[in-house]
Write a structure and sequence with these properties.
With about 190 residues, the protein is mainly β. The chain is built from 1 helix and 14 strands, in the order αββββββββββββββ. It has 4 domains: about 35 residues, no CATH class; about 35 residues, no CATH class; about 40 residues, no CATH class; about 40 residues, no CATH class. The relative contact order is 0.11.
C-alpha cells in the first residue's frame, strides 16, 4: 500500500484555507466591557443614577424630576441609630429624629469573633461591643460598619472607618463630607 503524500498535503492545505477569515473581515473587533465602575452620579434634584454597561458604561439618564408630592427615597440616620425619611409636607426635609430615650439605640456594629460567633453593640453599656467569648483582645479590624458613603466637596466619596467608631472618614482635602448619606451599590 503506497501513500500519495502530495494528495494528502493538497487536501490539508485546502482544509486550512477554508478555516481562514475572509480578507474583508474586520480584524479589530474589541470585546464590550463586562462591567462598569460602581460610581454614582447625583442629578440636579438629588436623585442618583449609576453607570450602565449597555450604554458603554455611561451614566443612566437622570429620572424625571420629582413632583411636589414626591421626595427622594434616601434616609437619614439619627444619633440614636434609628432612621427617618423625607416628608413631602415639609418640602422634602427629613422627619425629626426621635427624642432620646433612656435606653439608647446603638448604631449597628458587629464584630466576628475567632470562634465564628458574633457580638453586637450593647445599649446597656454605652453601645460598646462586648468582648468575644474566650478572647477579649480581638483586633479592631473585625468591626463591620454600615456600607453607606458621603460626598466630599471635590466630588469624591468616603465611607465609614471601623477604627473611628464607624464615623465617616475625612475627605482627601481634610474636610468633612456632606451630611447626606448615599447607599453604596454593590
Amino acid at each position: 500500500m503506497t501513500v500519495n503524500y502530495t494528495a494528502i498535503l493538497f487536501m490539508l492545505s485546502l482544509m486550512l484555507s477554508a478555516c481562514q477569515p475572509a480578507a474583508d473581515q474586520d480584524k479589530t473587533t474589541v470585546a464590550a466591557p463586562e462591567g462598569c465602575s460602581k460610581e454614582l452620579k447625583v442629578c440636579d434634584d438629588g436623585q442618583t443614577v449609576s453607570r450602565n454597561p449597555s450604554l458603554d458604561c455611561a451614566f443612566d439618564p437622570c429620572p424625571p424630576a420629582l413632583t411636589k408630592n414626591q421626595c427622594p427615597g434616601d434616609m437619614k440616620q439619627c444619633p440614636d441609630g434609628s432612621f427617618v425619611k423625607r416628608v413631602p409636607k415639609n418640602n422634602c426635609e427629613f422627619d425629626l429624629c426621635p427624642i432620646k430615650t433612656q435606653t439608647p439605640r446603638c448604631q449597628q456594629k458587629t464584630k466576628k469573633c475567632p470562634d465564628g460567633s458574633f457580638v453586637f453593640s450593647d445599649p446597656s453599656n454605652q453601645c460598646k461591643l462586648p468582648p468575644c467569648p474566650n478572647d477579649p483582645k480581638e483586633p479592631e479590624s473585625s468591626i463591620f460598619c454600615p456600607q453607606d458613603v458621603r460626598q466630599c466637596p471635590d466630588g469624591s466619596y468616603v465611607g465609614r472607618d471601623p477604627q473611628q467608631n464607624c464615623a465617616f472618614k475625612l475627605c482627601p482635602d481634610g474636610s468633612r463630607p456632606s451630611g447626606n448619606s448615599l447607599k453604596r451599590i454593590e
